[in-house]
Amino acid sequence: MRIPKDILLFKNIFSVLTSEAENSYCPIDLPNTCRNATEITDSCCFEYPGGVFLQSQFWNYKTSKIGMNESEIVKELGPMDSFTIHGLWPDNCDGSYEQFCRRDLFIDDVYYIMHNGNFPNTKDLYDDLDLLWKSNIVGGDESLWIHEFNKHGSCIKNLYSQCYERWNENDEKEEKLWKERGVIDYFNVTVNLFKKLDTYSALKQHNIVPSEDKTYTKSEIENALQESFGGKKVFINCDRNNVINEIWYYHLLKGSMLNEDFQPLSVNELGKKMPSSRCREEGIKYYPKGYFPKGQIPDGDKRGQRGVLRIINKNTGNSIGIVIKDGHWMSKGSPANYQLIKSPFGNYNLRSRLGYCQITTNNELACHYKNIQQASQFEYDSETGFIGYSNSYLWGSSDIPKNTKKGTISIIKNDEDDFKYVLRLKFISI
């Protein structure tokens, strides 16, 4: 049985498949992602290594101006009674993640893809994006969509063009159109999953509602959301003022992403790379959209912090070197000045006077890129000052450079990375 091309878009396509051994099909007895006992090489039917799908949601309450009316607030922050979409991220089974995987898939215009008439039903999908997928920057919604697909969608192998060619082997479309189809499906699947995870209603059922003065405990919020998520614990995060601002729902996936068979996964099941929440145990605030606490004003200067990068021995905690302007390190000398710049859509960019920093294809730190599109996004722990990448805060080096010699520093992505020295990268403001 072949898969009719007209049921591929926006349908649960694999529920109709049989176990016939033909290349056009996905087997119906595939295990959940990250739960396979043997290697599965069919990347159209089984997502790997990004087998943990994280659906992240924002609660943004701050508007760009004080005193906006409800319609203005909804336009900027989404419905008053709804969290909004941040993205759908394919984390690896070990808790790390890939990002910006294939530049040949990158997009720079969502509106055109949704309105060019190449595929049906996309204008309605665009309306959903416009309402529910909101940036924290005025006028930046489409920039966020582009960012999310390029950073995360380009890493989902189920959506690569060769899979669409396989399902539609009698339809001779250009590869460009199959790439468009993958973009559309990424957004559609994300919106569908978001609509099933109604955070606002789940909290409201337990009398947890936005308030200017009431506070909640971390366990109250986690328990309410766990009940609505099949008994699986979710991850909640807060801003520096202990105001709830983000929820993460983890899933495994059965079959292709296009089948949308997401299986809830507890944050406790992520192992040693569990995320760390900034929410305190008590006194968590959940402000209404449009509310400005006394003394707070709309966000202003976002040029970032200025500082230096020091190399710390993980075992001793001692500083053993400094990072120079090109991203290499030395055991002696003067450190270069770096800017730690908050990215508009999460995480941080690093920049020296030579340019932006990137993690290269061989996992080394290099800082000489002029275009921000080439900049990697780093994590930053404001309490320790440590810099991380792809959910890892461990760095490695094969040698300690002596005298005036320079060394390379590489991000450690998994346990198999074999470095003589395990290090931390620490940002120190100046």
From TrEMBL:
GO terms for cellular component: extracellular region; vacuolar lumen. Residues 305-416 form the RNase T2-like C-terminal domain. Pfam families: Ribonuclease_T2, RNaseT2L_C. The keyword Glycoprotein applies. Its EC number is 4.6.1.19. GO terms for biological process: RNA catabolic process. It comes from the Eukaryota. Keywords: Cytoplasm, Endonuclease, Glycoprotein, Hydrolase, Nuclease, Signal, Vacuole. It is found in: Cytoplasm; Vacuole lumen. Its main location: cytoplasm. GO terms for molecular function: ribonuclease T2 activity; RNA binding. Rnase which modulates cell survival under stress conditions. Released from the vacuole to the cytoplasm during stress to promote tRNA and rRNA cleavage and to activate separately a downstream pathway that promotes cell death. Involved in cell size, vacuolar morphology and growth at high temperatures and high salt concentration. Belongs to the RNase T2 family. This is Ribonuclease T2-like. The lineage of its organism: Eukaryota, Fungi, Dikarya, Ascomycota, Saccharomycotina.
